[in-house]
Design a protein that fits this description.
Number of strands of chain A: 15
Strand order of the largest sheet of chain A: 3-2-1-4-5-6-7
Largest interface: A-B, 28 and 28 residues
Strand content of chain A: 15-25%
Largest sheet of chain A: 7 strands, parallel
Oligomer: homodimer
Helix content of chain A: 25-40%
Order of helices and strands of chain A: EHEEHEHEHEHEEHEHEHEHEHEHHHEE
Mean pLDDT of chain A: 93
Structural class of chain A: alpha/beta
Low-confidence stretches of chain A: 365-378
Shape of chain A: elongated
C-alpha cells in the first residue's frame, strides 16, 4: 500500500527525549516499510526514517527558537501533506485537529489517531469530523464516540514500543521507580506515600514543566530527602532504560484517566512489573497478578509492593512482545487501512453503478454500437 | 457572478469600532449585492450583510472571552469556506495566511487581498502561494512582488468607505485632529510638536493598546495638558465623524509605511484636508495642494497648517467619491474577478483541447459511429 504518515512538526521523529506521539509514529513508519509498504513520512526535516521524508521545514518547531510565530510553518506542513494526499491509498493523521478541520478538502481515505484527549475548544472540530479515527485504548472509545458523532470509529489500536531497544533484566534492586512528568495528575506524592509505608527507596525521574513548577515547590520539594526519596531529574533514553531495568517495580499512581501510558509497556519490556491506579487504559495494559497489580489507593499499592516479587519478569516482557510490539501495532493499522480503502472503493463503484443504472433506466434496455449492455435490474 | 467573500472570524462585519479589514469587506459585499451579483459572506454569525451569510460560529472571536483556544473555530471557518468553494465562480480571501496555505486544495479562482503587511514568519506562506492577490495600494506592490514570487499579482485596488455615512462640513473649527491608535509609528508626538509650533489646539483621539501603554506613559502623558493638547480617548463611529467634520485638518505624521490608511479618505469625505508625512500609500491618497499636503518633517507640517484654509472642502469630498467609493472599489474588484475566471476557463479549455489533440494524433483521422471528427492539426 502507498501510505502517508503525517507527524506533528513540533518534534523530531523519533524524538530525542519526550514526545510519545513522535515515538509511536517512528516505530509504526519503520515497521510498515519493513513489511514492504510504500511509506512516506511528513515530518520535520531533521527526522530519521526508513520511509521517504516529506518536509517543509528543516527543523522541528520545538527547537526553532528564532521563530516568533510557529503557526505558518505548521499550516504549510499540513497543507503540503494534504496536497500530496491523492498520491496515496491512505493517509494517517497523527497531528490532530487542524488537519481534521481540512479533511473534507481531499477524498483520499484518512485515519486520525487520538494521541491527545480533547478540550472544550478542540471538540468544535471533532463534532464536525466525518472521516475515520482510531483510539489508542478501548477506554478512549466511549469519550470519542460522544464528541465525534459524525466520524467513523475504527476501534482501538494500542501504541507500541521498539521492544528490542529495552534491556531485559530479571535481577532487580529493592528500589521503587516513579518515571513520568512530575505533575499532580501523575501522582508522585502517592508514590512517596508508598515508599514511606513500605520503607523502601523511591527514585523519582522526570521533568518538571513550567506549569507544574508550583506543585513541585509546594508539594514535592519537602518530600525529597535525597536518601529515601531521590529526585533524579529528567532521564534521557539510555538513563530511562537503566532505571527501568534495575527497579523492583514501576509505580503509576495516576489521578487522571491516562489514555495509554507508554511507560507501562516500557517498564514491562525490561521485565519490571507495574503497579498502577485503576484509571483510563490501565486495566487494558497491565494483566493484574501476571505483569503487575491494579489498585485503587496508596495503601493497596503498598500492599502490592510486598507481592511484586511473585511477578515473573519473563511474563512481563512476553506480554509486551505480544500486545505492544511494532509488528502487532503495524498489522492492526494495516487491517484498518485496508477496511478504509476497500470501503472507499466500494462507495466509488456503487456511485458509478448508480450512474450506469440511471442511464439504463433512462434509455431502456439497449444494444448500442454493437456493445450489449446487460440490464442488472429485473 | 457567484462570489464568496471570506472575512476574518475575529471581528463582526461590519465592526462596531476598530476593524479596517471588516469595514472594507462589509462595504464591498453590500455593493456587490447592489450590483446584482450572487454574493455569500463567510463571517461570524453576528455579522450584518445584504449577502447570504455562511457562518460556523454565532459570535466574533474578539468577543468570545469564554474560549480558551480560538484556533479551532478559525480553522473551521476557513475549512468551511473552502469546502463551499466549488459553488462559486470566484472566492475572495480577506483572512490572510491560513487560507492561503490551504489554497492549492481547491481549484476555484481565488483572490487574496493584502490587508496586512507580512512578517518573517508569514512570508513562509507567501513564498509558497501560487494563486492571485491584490494589494491595497501601489506602494505595497514592490514588497509583495518580492515576498510572493510564485503568486500572480492583480495590481492594486484601493479600499473604500461608505461616503454617504460621513457628514460633509465646509465650516471648520481652528483645531487640529490626530485620529489613530496612540502608537509611536503613528507619530502623535509630532502632532503635538505641530500644535506647539502653530499655537493651535490639538485633539488626540484613539485607543492605547496594551503594547503601546509604555509609550503613552513615558512620551505622551506629560504632553497632554487638557487645554492645548486634549486627549479624547477612543472615539466610536458617531464621535469619529463629528471630530473629522469640525477639525481644521487631520494630521498624519506617520513614521512607518502605512499600506493604506482609511482615516485619510474618512477625513476628506467630511471635507477635511489631510496633512501627512510622505510614507507608504500617502502620495496615492492625498492630492498635494488639492486635498491636503504631503510633507517630510514636523516643521513642514506646521507650515502646511497655515496654508490649509486654501484647500476646498468640496474638492476633498469629490476626490473620495471618485477614488475611494464603494462603487469604484467594487467595479475594480469585479474586473479582477472577471480576469481570474476567464483565465481559469481558458486554462481549462486549453487542457481539454490538448487531450482531444492527443487522442486525434494517436488514432489518426477517423469517422466513428457516424460522427466525423475533424482533425485540427495539418
Amino acid at each position: 500500500m502507498r501510505i502517508l504518515q503525517i507527524a506533528p512538526l513540533w518534534e523530531t521523529v523519533p524524538p530525542p527525549a519526550y514526545g510519545g506521539t513522535e515515538a509511536v509514529v517512528s516505530v509504526l513508519t519503520d515497521e510498515l516499510v519493513r513489511m514492504g509498504h510504500d511509506v512516506t513520512l511528513a515530518a520535520s526535516g531533521d527526522s530519521r526514517t526508513r520511509a521517504k521524508l516529506l518536509s517543509v521545514y528543516p527543523r522541528s518547531l520545538r527547537r526553532a527558537d528564532d521563530l516568533t510565530d510557529r503557526n505558518p510553518y505548521d499550516w504549510s506542513h499540513i497543507a503540503t501533506a494534504l496536497e500530496h494526499a491523492r498520491e496515496f491509498d491512505v493517509i494517517h493523521n497523527h497531528t490532530g485537529e487542524l488537519l481534521m478541520a481540512m479533511s473534507n478538502l481531499v477524498s483520499t481515505p484518512m485515519l486520525t489517531t487520538t494521541h491527545c484527549m480533547t478540550t472544550h475548544d478542540t471538540e468544535f472540530i471533532w463534532r464536525r469530523y466525518r472521516r475515520a479515527y482510531n483510539t489508542i485504548s478501548r477506554w478512549q472509545q466511549a469519550h470519542f464516540g460522544r464528541v465525534a458523532p459524525q466520524a467513523r470509529s475504527m476501534g482501538h489500536v494500542y501504541n507500541a514500543i521498539d521492544v528490542e531497544t529495552f534491556p531485559f533484566e530479571p535481577a532487580k534492586s529493592d528500589d521503587l521507580l516513579f518515571l513520568s512528568r512530575v505533575a499532580p495528575e501523575k501522582g508522585p506524592q502517592y508514590a512517596v506515600e508508598v515508599a514511606k509505608r513500605t520503607g523502601r527507596r523511591l527514585i523519582i525521574a522526570g521533568k518538571v514543566d513550567n506549569y507544574d513548577r508550583q506543585f513541585f515547590e509546594e508539594v514535592m520539594r519537602d518530600l525529597i530527602d535525597g536518601e529515601q526519596i531521590v529526585f533524579f531529574g529528567e532521564a534521557d533514553a539510555a538513563q530511562k532504560r537503566e532505571l527501568y531495568a534495575r527497579a523492583m517495580c514501576l509505580l503509576m499512581p495516576i489521578t487522571w484517566d491516562e489514555p495509554f501510558g507508554l511507560v507501562m509497556p516500557e517498564a514491562m519490556a525490561c521485565g519490571t512489573p507495574v503497579i498502577a491506579f485503576n484509571r483510563g487504559s490501565v486495566p487494558e495494559i497491565i494483566v493484574h497478578g501476571r505483569t503487575g497489580f491494579i489498585v485503587d489507593t496508596a495503601g493497596e499499592m503498598a500492599d502490592a509492593v510486598s507481592e511484586v516479587r511473585r511477578i515473573d519478569p519473563h511474563a512481563c516482557r512476553e506480554h509486551v512482545r505480544e500486545h505492544f510490539s511494532p509488528a502487532t501495532m503495524a498489522a492492526n493499522y494495516v487491517r484498518v487501512y485496508e477496511r478504509l480503502v476497500a470501503d472507499t472503493w466500494r462507495a466509488h463503484t456503487a456511485a458509478a453503478s448508480r450512474t450506469v443504472s440511471a442511464a439504463i433506466i433512462e434509455n431502456g434496455p439497449a444494444v448500442a454500437d454493437g456493445h450489449a449492455i446487460a440490464r442488472t435490474a429485473s
